[in-house]
Write the structure tokens for this entry.
Amino acid sequence: MSEKEDYFSYLENVLGIKTVLIDQASQQASSQQIKSPLIFLVEGLSSYSADETELLNKMIAALKIDLSQVQAVDSQISASCEAEFTVHFVDHLGASLPRIPTGETVLVTHSPRFLLKNAAFKKQAWDDLQKVIRFFSRQAN
């Protein structure tokens, strides 16, 4: 098994993550719409290191949401995504950020890549992700 296959096996068999990562090349080749209750659009996901991917998976797992209801995809294919709630993980928040409409079902926050370099922002990112938990808690009731 290759290192990549070993890692994906670890994600599935140890962490129980079955549908978090989608291969960007196969998604772009497919015209199929991605539909999921919760989609994470991750800036530069296709170039994530193992540490960045691990933090992304931990952040998603911390939400305690059924992982079969979650998709994480590279933000480059966002046009083919449809979700009840969308989280945009971006490397830089600020004026240079493309306009992403935010609202009750769209959230823009710091990416795992950014957080590994700027640990002081982890609390802010976690506070942002609490909105996802509240949204799905209300949906369950």
Summary: The first strand starts at residue 34 and ends at 42. Residues 24-31 have pLDDT under 50 and may be disordered. The domain at 3-22+34-140 is CATH 3.40.470.10 (Uracil-DNA Glycosylase, subunit E).
